[in-house]
Each structure stands twice: as C-alpha cells, then as structure tokens.
Amino acid sequence: MTEQSYPIPKLTITGIEISKYIIIHGEFCSPSEKTAAQELQFYIERSCGVQLPVTADSNVESPHEILVGTTNRRYDLDVSYACLGDDGFYLQVKESKLYIVGSPTRGTLYGVYTLLEDYLGWRWFAPVVEQTILSGDAALPGNLDVKFVPIVEYRDTYWYSSLNENWAVKLKVNSIIKNQACSRSIREEWGGGLGYGGPSFVHTFNVFMPISEYFAEHPEYYSLREGKRNGEHLYTQLCLTNPDVLRIMTDKVLNCLQEEPQAGIVSVSQDDSFLSDSYCQCDDCERIHQEEGSPMGSLLRFVNAIADAVKVKHPKVIIDTLAYQHTFTPPKITRPRDNVAIRICTFSPVISRKHEEQPHIKESLEIWSKICNRIYIWDYTTNFSDYIVTFPNFHTLLPNMRLFVNNHAKGIFEQGNYQSISGEFGELRTYLLAQLLWKPDQTETDFERHMNEFLQGYYGAGWQFIRQYIDDVQEIVLKSEPGARGTPTEILPPALFDAEQAKAWWDQAEALAGDEHTLQRIRRSRLQLIHWELFNNGHTDDMNANAYYKMAKDFGITHLNEGVAVPEPRSC
Q1: What pTM value is reported for the model?
Q2: pLDDT one-digit tens code per residue, 232-247
Q3: Strands (DSSP E) along 185-326, which ranges?
Q4: Are 91 and 99 in contact (CB under 8 A)?
Q5: Distance CA 169, CA 276 (A)
C-alpha cells in the first residue's frame, strides 16, 4: 500500500464503491492484456487499499466488472476498433461496467495506464520514482466515453532512464533499440514495440557492407573522393549507383527480415560522418546529384529500389533512411515510396532557438511533408560535448514537437544522454519529452503542469527553488543565445549568472529534501552547478577536478560526453 499522509481515497464507478468490482480479462487474452489487468489490480490496491479479484471472462459474470481488453462481453460495447491501431484505446462506462479496450498489442495496456494517470493521479517520474498525486476521492462518471489514438506512431526518448523497459511502457515509449552502446527491449507481456531489423537501427552502410569484407576485392563499391576510394577512412560511404551494391544490400535486407520476421522497420542509411562531403562523386552518382539538386537524390533512388523489393514479400515493413548532413536537402525529382520513412535530423547549434526559427530546418520539413507520407524525426535534446553542463532548452521542447506534428511527422526519436544517469536534468527532460510524444497537441499550461508535478515528485518539498534555478538559467540563455556545444560559462556567462543565488536555491532544496533518496537526487542534479563553479575559467586544479570526478562516479554517472567516460579518481 502507498505511504500517504492523507486518508486512503475511495474510488467509485457510477457511484458504486470499487470494492464491489472484479477485473475481467479474456480467457485467451494476449500477454499484454493479462499484464494490463494485473497492473490495474496492483495500482488500485496501492491507491485505495482494496485488492480486486482478477479472473477470466469464462468464469461467473458480475454486474460490477472492469473489463480489460478483448472479452466475451464486447457485445455490450458499441465502438469501432478499426481506427485504433496498435496503441489506441477506448475508456467507457456503461451502466455499472467499466471497459478498457484497445489493441491486444499495446492499446489496452496504454488504456489502463491512462486511466490510472487521469483518474487516480498516478505519475511515473523515473524508473524508481512513482507516486499518486491524488489527495481525495475519485469517481468515474456513468457517461465516461474516451477514445484516444496517438498522433505519433513511433515514439522514443533516447535517454538513459527510458532504457528501463517497465518505465518506458508506462510513459508509452514504444521503440525497441538494438545498439552496442545501449539497448531497450520491450517484451510481449509489456506490449512489444516497433523494432528495427538487422544489426543496427541507424548508420547501416558499413554494417551491411563492411569495408573489411568487401573493399580489398571491390573498392568500386565505396565512395569516390578526389579520384580515390579509401578503404581505411572511418567514414567511407557506398557508391549508390553501383548495381552490385544495390544487389548485395537488397539481399542483406531481405535476409535480415527472414531471420527477424517480427521486425517492422529496417534502416538503410548512410554512415555517420563529420565530413559533409563524404558521399560518392563518381560520374554516375554526380549526374544524379546534379539532376536532383542534392546528394539525397542518389540515396533515395537506392532506398526506393530496396523498398520495392521488400514490399513484394513484406508489404508492412518500412525502409528507413536519413535526411542528414549531405542528404538533408530534399531532392527535386524523386519521391519516397509509400513504404519509405525519411528520418529528418534536426541538429540545432543554438540552445535558445526553436526549430521553427531556423529556416533550413523549417523549410526542409515543409518540403518533405509535401512529398513524403511517412516522416520520422531524429531530434537532439542534450549537449553532446558535455552531458553535465546546464542545458536550458526546456522552452523549445513544446514548439519543436508542434512543428514536427504540424508537418505530419509519424515517428519521433528524441536523442539525449543515453549513456549515463544524469548529473543535470536528464530525468526531467525524459519525462517531459515522453509526455509530448504521447500528446504533442498539449497546451503550454499542460506542459507547465507536467514540469511542476515532476519537480515536486522527484525533488520533494523544496522543488520550487529548483524551478527558480531552471527559470533563471532559461532567462539567461534567452538573452545571450549561447552555442549548444559551449563551455559552462559560454552558456551561463558570469556577468549574467548569479552563482551565489543559485547556490542558495540548491541549498534550500536540499534542506527540504525530507529523505535520503530525494536528497541524493537533488545533489546529483546539483552537479551542473558544481561543474560551472569548477570550470568557469576554462580550467581548474587537479585536486578539485579529482574530487568532482569522484563525486560523479559515486552518483553512478559514467560519461562526461558521448565519447569520454568519467575519469577514475586518483588517490591522493
């Protein structure tokens, strides 16, 4: 039972106390529908102190039932299931029965979590921080009739805390990640997810056609640059007009789908590169680039050909590719096939500017939305050169999400610090992004409510002092427009940032923590201020740095940035 400082609330359905109800699932229900029934039982007991029986629909019928998923009572419910997809659901009360029904894949489970959120006040702030904010009785009215189908079909907050399967499902993150650095599995009993086939979900050229395997005998398979094909170069791309390359890649994609028939997406995408001109410039490739006005021309023709072959045997599979670096500009002629997803990468060099204020991003989205029926987004929401530095981009999250969905984005991937628990506000940012992915049409008031609820639940009674810090540094960023990859003092210049006031706010938050777990969460997030104090001149002495790295290690922080681990503290 939840520890509460107020009387245990009552829950009624059409005026009938919840204790009179039983939870019904189908005798042959899906694994996630069984989980949905069990989760509903668990959280109702934690909220109300009443453990409801859970049973199959083949057993005795009761006048007071909560029907979870597909049951033999469905004839009582006048709804259409065709438009729900895998994630949509209905919540309805008819007479004295509550129906929570949706897809047996994930929809019913999402319906249960939405009911718990909206009517019993449950909040899942982080994998180890959940609570109900309900402070009184709750009642489900007899006219309850809610239908919800998410706008975004593919939702991923690629932050460390959301790699936790159980937490991700509660926040309706539905992406399965396969990556050597980190991964997220979502088992069938938790609804499964949208997973990529093959060995990687992005940058797959060298994965499917490794230089080590092909270059020695066939250098012509790789990009020609300044008259040379260099098999030792880290960022060598493929020659996309070579027919053998198309044949090999097509076979590799089809083979991976044969081995992984459950896969819904396969990435056929260029390798990552800090060199914007790493694409092939052979005569055949360059002819296409000139025709199309962009190196995306050769890539999209290549991807379309693979998509055509895939559609014959796997009509529901999506082939995903990147609009990134040299392929960011849409082509003039070629259009993506209907089973191709264009994943637009929106890297923004300025924290304070929203994507709608950056013409190259806004215009690219608008063009792609007119020629592509499946736009995916790869968005960047952290400082990749310094994970712990204060990164005040909260004011951009809602308008950016609106821009994406207004341009018909169907999948959104929000990349952040996926390597380590956060020493900044990573858990807050993850929570807010998940809320936005589920309901991107929410209002500013909704967004503010989500932020304040998180701060109070995660940081305790002194949360408003942390909110003051957030608002203060956000205002500084809006005035100074620093670079996203800047040092701490470029982001928070000493002339504008009152470090003593900031320390006082964090001190007050710590003083009101209330318990050791909350205190540790506050102190871990306070590392961003210690970071600023330590490095505000661009350098520091070894002794202080050593103490700082030890502190980070003690909090479980493993990475300073995407390529550098926290150093092992040296003994004195």
Answers
A1: 0.94
A2: 665 679 999 999 999 9
A3: 194-197, 265-267, 318-323
A4: yes
A5: 37
